[in-house]
Design goal:
Strand 1 (4-8), helix 1 and strand 2 form a beta-alpha-beta unit. Helices cover 51% and strands 13% of the residues. The protein has a single domain, classed as NAD(P)-binding Rossmann-like Domain (Rossmann fold, 3-Layer(aba) Sandwich). By secondary structure, the chain is of the alpha/beta class. The protein has helices at residues 13-24, 36-50, 64-75, 101-129, 150-170, 189-193, 197-200, 209-221, 231-238, 245-259, and strands at residues 4-8, 29-33, 54-58, 81-86, 132-137, 175-180, 226-227. The chain is globular, with a radius of gyration of 18 Å. Strands 3-2-1-4-5-6-7 form a seven-stranded parallel β-sheet, with helices on both faces. Helix 3 runs parallel beside helix 4. The protein has ten helices and seven strands. The structure holds NADP nicotinamide-adenine-dinucleotide phosphate.
Amino acid sequence: MTAYTLITGASSGIGLALAAAFAARGDALLLVARRGEVLEQIAGRLRACHKVDVQTRICDLAEAAQLDRLCDDLARGTPEIGTLVNNAGFATSGAFVDNAWHEERELIEVNVTALARLCHVVGRRMAAAGRGQILNVSSISGMMPGPWMANYAAAKAYVLSLSEGLREELAPRGVKVSVLCPGTTRSPFFARAGIDLDKLEKEALVMTPQDVARITVAALERDTAIIVPRWYNKILAITPRLGPRWLLRRVVGALYKGVARTA
Ligand SMILES: NC(=O)c1ccc[n+]([C@@H]2O[C@H](COP(=O)([O-])OP(=O)(O)OC[C@H]3O[C@@H](n4cnc5c(N)ncnc54)[C@H](OP(=O)(O)O)[C@@H]3O)[C@@H](O)[C@H]2O)c1
């Protein structure tokens, strides 16, 4: 039976680039996002280019009923998932208490609840089969506090911690778990968060989703636990260990406050 690579948030940015990279290595794909027409166009291109089976599934991961239906199907093994990529996510910016609660709640539902639920349902089947691979997408932001992007940074810290925990729990049961922590990557992510990317980061330090995906797929083949693409992001990833926490909060807060939608 074909085991599919399920990628959430495959309609743009890093998820789309990961879909292309997994198709290039011959994986059958199940692409999940809200925009069905966009997914269908992507699926058509990947089938034509790589001669692989590509299925699509419209699912708003913030809608409990839609997530339930997807998880019920996956619990029955329709289809069987060999690799799970929890990539869908978005950020809010600005002061948490001034932002609309429904947006902050949606952030938790997509970035945290749906990711955990998919790890649970798919991870359980993988553990029973004694094989499988899970990749969760966190962020460098998950390694440090993030004033003015507080809920996003907290959600990504959860993803990093959950992934490391699951890695140890599932390794003896034949399931590999990795977490991707990208730095700034050019995608529609910043427009949705109301952040001007050109103000946030120097162009030379902004990665393309294609480079992130290429490095990630190679790292997964080596079963890397925490994937941080590029040397300058690796340096950022160790900065929380170098100085006091109060200084880190001030520095990161000043950076995010300067670019946030409502500061
Ligand atoms: N870009 C960066 O600098 C950066 C850095 C570190 C980490 N990341 C993480 O990388 C991941 C991908 O981000 P990206 O930069 O590629 O952003 P993106 O281009 O905005 O892509 C986000 C994807 O998530 C999907 N999505 C959003 N809300 C959804 C929902 N309610 N239900 C289902 N799918 C939903 C979107 O699809 P639809 O709109 O079609 O639903 C889209 O495919 C995210 O987890 C993000 O936090 C990004």
